[in-house]
Amino acid sequence: MSTPPVAHESANADAESGPADLAIGSFSNDPPWIVDPAAMPWREVVDSIRWLTQHDLPDLTTPRRLPDVKRAATVVADFGTALGMWWATGRRKGKAGDREASRTDLSRRLRRSIERLGPTYIKLAQIISSGEGLFPEELVTEFKKCRDQVPAQPFHIVRSIVEEDFGAPLEDIFESFDETPLAAASIAQVHGAVLRTGEPVVVKVQRTTVASLVNKDIRVMAWLAPFLVGRLPFASLANPPALVELFAETISEELDFRLEAQNMLDVAASFVALKQRGYIVPRPHPTLVTRRVLVMERLSGFNFDDVDSMRDAGVDTHEVVRTGMIGFMEGAIIEGIFHGDLHGGNLFVLPDGKVALLDFGITGRMDERQRRAFLRLMLGATVNDVHMQIAALCDLGALPLDTDIDAVIADLGLGAPTIDPTTADPDEMIQEVQKIVKMLLGYGARMPKELMLYVKNLVFLDGAIARLAPDLDIFAEITQISMYFVQTHGEKLFAEAGFDPSAFEVDLAGVKDSIGLDRSVDRFTYRDLQERRELIKTRFEKRGVN
C-alpha cells in the first residue's frame, strides 16, 4: 500500500504552526480573523432554528385540497407551454433521427421555464445537474447553467437587504462592495467585498421573498405529487410524494444562513477530528451573519474543471481525487457529517493541492444509528456481503425495519449472475430495471435525505475522477482506500459494525459484476469505464431507447 495523503501527515504540523483556530477547524493558514465559537452571537439561535425547520416540514408537505391557486396555475402554464413548443418543433428532430438535438431542445426549454419560475425549481435543476450518469447528458449540461448563471437581482435590492439585516449603511460596514455578483444561484447571490477593517470577503445575500415563494412551491408540489403516481413514465418508477418530502427537507435548511454558517464550523471541526487537512473551509464572520446575509472569508484557486492549470502548477490531480474520496467518506462514516452538495461550482483547488469547499446550505447529518448503518453499508460493499448491505439500508430508513432481507435478495436476483449490459438486449435491460424498481417500491423503499446526498456526491466524484485522473486503476484504488480505512480507523470501525477483523478481505467481485466484467479482470481504469459506458449508451440509442 502506498503512503496515505500528505494532507494527513501534515495535519498536526499545520495546527501547531498556524493560526490558533486550526485546532478547531480545517481553515486556511492566512486568516482574516480567528474563529472563536463562543464569540459568535448568531450561534445562540441555531439549535432552535434547526428544530423549528424540522418541526414545520410535515405541515408544509401535507397535500391540501388546493394549494396557492395563482402559483399552481403559473407553474402548470409555464411548463405546459415549454412542453407544447417542444412537441410542435423540437420533437420533429427526434423523429428525423436526431435524438440528441431533440433532447437538447427540450432541455433548453425546460431550463428557461425553471429560471422564470424561480428559486425552488432552480434548486431542483441544480440537483439534476449534479447527476451526471443518472440523467440525460443534454439535461445535465443545460441545467448546469442554473448553478451560477441565474439572472442576478438588481444591486439596489441587494443593498437594501444587507442594510436592513445589519442595521447600518453599506458604507459603514464595507470599504468596497462589488455591484456585479461573482455568482447568482437559486437561493442567493454572492458578491466580493472588502470590510472597513481591510479584509477581503465574500457576501452571500438571499433573494427577496425567496422563503415565502419556496413554501408556496412546495405546497404546489405536495398537491400535485399524488396525481403523478403511476401516470407518467418517469413518475411510475418513483414515489413523487416521498420525493417532495425529501426535497422540502433539503431546501428548507438553506433558507436561514445562520444554519449554513454553523454547518461550516461543524464540517471544519470534523476534518480536524479526522486529521484531514486536504479540505479547507472558509471562516464565517464572527458577527456579520443573519438569516439572509452571510459574510465569510474569501478564498481563491483553480476551477475544479481546469485540469491543465492544476497540472501546470504542479498539483497532483490524482492526489486531489484520493483526498476528496477519503475526506468525504470519512466525514460520513466516522463523524456523521458531510458536505451535501458537491459540484464543480461549490469547490476549487488551491495551489498547494488542497480543496476549498464552498456553499454549506445542504449538509448531510446523521445520528449515531444512521452513521453506523452507513458504516455497515460501506463495509458490506467492500467485502461483497449483500445481506449486510440490505440490512444497513433498513437501518437507514431506505427500507422498512421489518423487511424480509432474504426475500429482497431473492426477488431482486442479487445472488444470481449479472447481465453484461454491453451485450444484453436493451429492451430486456430496461424491463429488468423497471421490474426491480417496482419491486423495491412494493417493499416500501424510499430515499432518505442523507443517502440521496451521499449517492449524489458519489456521482459527482465519479465524474471528477474521469476528468482529473482518467488512468486511475479503479480496482487498485478501491483496495488502497479500503486498506487506508482499516489501518487508520479499523479498530473503531470493526467494533461498531460488529465485524470480525480477521475475516476482512476486500472482495471486488461485486464491483466487477455491477459493470459486467469477468471476475478474472484485475485492472480497469476510469478511461476503460467511460468507454464501456459510451458503448452501452450507443447500443441503447440505436434501439431508440431515450
Any overview of this molecule?
This protein has 546 residues and is an alpha+beta fold. Among the domains are: 128 residues, no CATH class; 175 residues, no CATH class. Helices cover 55% and strands 9% of the residues. It is built from 23 helices and 12 strands. Strands 1, 2, 3, 4, 6 and 7 form a 6-stranded antiparallel β-sheet that branches. It has a 4-stranded mixed β-sheet with strand order 5-11-10-8. A two-stranded antiparallel sheet has the order 9-12. A hairpin with a 3-residue loop joins strand 6 and strand 7. Helix 5 runs parallel beside helix 7, helix 15 packs antiparallel against helix 20 and helix 16 packs antiparallel against helix 17. The protein is globular and about 70 Å long.
What's this, in brief?
With 546 residues, this protein is an alpha+beta fold.
Overall pLDDT: 83
Biggest pleated sheet: 6 strands, antiparallel
User: Uncertain runs with pLDDT below 50, 5 residues or more?
Assistant: 1-9, 232-237
**Strand composition percent:** 5-15%
Give the number of DSSP strands: 12
The 3D shape can be described as: globular
Percent range of helical residues: 55-70%
Total helix count?
23
Computed structural class: alpha+beta
What is the subunit arrangement here? single chain
Backbone CA Rg: 24 Å
Give the N-terminus to C-terminus distance in angstroms.
43 Å
